[in-house]
Amino acid sequence: MVANTQSWWQEKLHKLSLHSRVTLLAAVAVGLAVAFVSIAAYVSVRQQMYQNLDESLTNRAAQAAQNKVLTNQANLAQISPEALGLSDILVGVILADGEQIGAANSKPPPMEEPEFAVAQSQNQISKRTFGESMGAHYRIIAVPAQYCPQLDLGHRCSDEDLEPGALVVAQSLRPIDQTLHNMGIVLWAVGLLGVIGAAIAGNAIAASGLRPLARLSGAAEHVARTEDLQPIPVDGSDEISRLAISFNSMLAALARSQDRQRRLIGDAGHELRTPLTSIRTNLDLLAQADKRGGLRPDDRQQLLDDVRAQMDELTNLIGDLTELARDTPQIRNAELIELSNVVEDALIKVRRRAPNLEWDVSIEPFPVWGDERLLGRAVTNLLDNAAKYSVPEDARTDGVPVGLVTVRLQDGVLTVTDSGPGIADADLPHVFERFYRSSEARSRPGSGLGLAIVKHAAEQHGGMIYARNAPGAGAQFTLWLPHAATQTR
């Protein structure tokens, strides 16, 4: 039952808006605080009033018992309490044998077991509250007393005449009850006003505090509707302002990603257009030549070789674009890889494509965590780049090496140095950008994505790549990767 009630309340609260929940929370918090304070004040005042009444009644009863004025039968029978200044009090005596004597012209106070116990000297004092149904409400005090049964007014009893008993006084609690009743009404009124004021204040605070959140929600809806990634203005330094700053950071990241996608699409379209145009031109020439009787075998073969080369370039370009378009933040399916094996496999491929180069290779084992396919692509691109620029454009090969590529792998640092012309100082900051091609590279085959993939692979594996011109040689590329023992899986 309790669980069902709690689930019902949780369901109702979840349906409320944050504004309503803040207002409700403020009202409930103040309501509980007012309730606790009111209860504490009510109980404290009530206890203090009863304590003061008990002290007053006890002192007056003890004094009357000591003076033996009200414990004389003649006095009780003939002198009314009003004559003694006790008009608001009921006075009586209960004897050890249970006999009860009341004051003149007044009803006796309620006398029961507690008062009888005092009369029999079982208790020193008795304090209790007595309430009649639909009637009076009394506070009753009983103190030990010596009762004088003499009927002569003013006659002093001897010790032998005194009988043990208890003097019982009872005072109506009507004034205290009325005071507490009025106090309860005031506390309820003040509490209700406090809750209403807290709800109004909570509503105002929620409206003011959640205004930035409303702007943030509006901005998110605007972005979803228009795809406009403009940041929203931020005022202040509270939690919502920090949330807005984080939202702006997310928008900036989305804008950068969107910009990269647009540049990638635009550059890809431009790069794809060149091989496609060349292939179409060659196929048109082949078709026209076939209509006129065909080309000579050598010319036809040269044309087909050109088409095949353009197809290879197009295939490589599409593969590079696919790799870069993933733009994943990290390697998800990492495995333990021996980097030296990756370099050796890449060397086998590139040597087959560049047989007229001399290769100076020194490789040491080095384990890393990562994606073997992506690392293999990156190392192959580095070696292909070095092989391409190590061969002069006008070189004629007769089985004699025309260039040198130096490859070193030591302590996770792969260094590839070619024997080409090097990299111009103006081009060094841009060699790893997508589709960037220097003036020397534009006359050579390639898409401008190879080194961008190398940088992408290095960043994915927590490494670095940088380029420089080696002294006395060509361009030198250095790829550093962390050891497997220092990488997190």
TrEMBL record:
It is found in: Cell membrane. Residues 267-485 form the Histidine kinase domain. It comes from the Bacteria. CDD domains: HAMP (cd06225), HATPase (cd00075), HisKA (cd00082). It comes from Kribbella albertanoniae. Keywords: Kinase, Membrane, Phosphoprotein, Transferase, Transmembrane, Transmembrane helix, Two-component regulatory system. InterPro entries: HAMP_dom, HATPase_C_sf, HATPase_dom, His_kinase_dom, HisK_dim/P_dom, HisK_dim/P_sf, Sig_transdc_His_kin-like_C, TCS_sensor_his_kinase. It catalyses: ATP + protein L-histidine = ADP + protein N-phospho-L-histidine. The lineage of its organism: Bacteria, Bacillati, Actinomycetota, Actinomycetes, Propionibacteriales. One of its GO terms (cellular component) is plasma membrane. It holds the Pfam family HAMP. The chain crosses the membrane at residues 22-43, 185-206. Its EC number is 2.7.13.3. Residues 207-259 form the HAMP domain. This is histidine kinase. GO terms for molecular function: phosphorelay sensor kinase activity.
